[in-house]
Amino acid sequence: MVVLVCWRFHIHMNPFQIVCVRDKITKKEITTGEYEGMKDVWKDTISVEGATNGENPELGVEIEYRTRYARYIGQFVLHCHILPPRRHRNDAECGNHIVGNRAL
Questions:
Q1: Which residues of 2-40 are buried (b: 16+ CB within 10 A; e: fewer)?
Q2: pLDDT tens for each residue of 43-54
Q3: What is the per-residue pLDDT for 103?
C-alpha cells in the first residue's frame, strides 16, 4: 500500500506564482480540489502531494511555478516543511540559492 502525504513547499524571501499543477503520471493539469483556483496565484508556500518513504516517487503532483528577483539580492532558502532538517540536507529537499545583480 502506498500512502500519499501533502508536504508544504516554501521559498524564503520571495513569493512564487503558480503556473500549473500536474498529475505526475498522466501529466494532466489539476484544477480541482485543493488546487482549484491556484493558477496565476502568488504564494510563498504550497502543499505538494507525493508518496512517502521514496515509494513510487512517480505518484503525486508536480508544481510548475515562476518567480522574480526584483526586490531581493542575496542568499535565501527553499525547502519543504514536513521533513526534519537532517533529511533536507541529505536528500536535497532543501536548496540554498544566491541571487545577484550581475549578468550571466
A1: eeeeebebebeebebebebbbeeeeeeebeeeebeebee
A2: 988 888 876 555
A3: 52
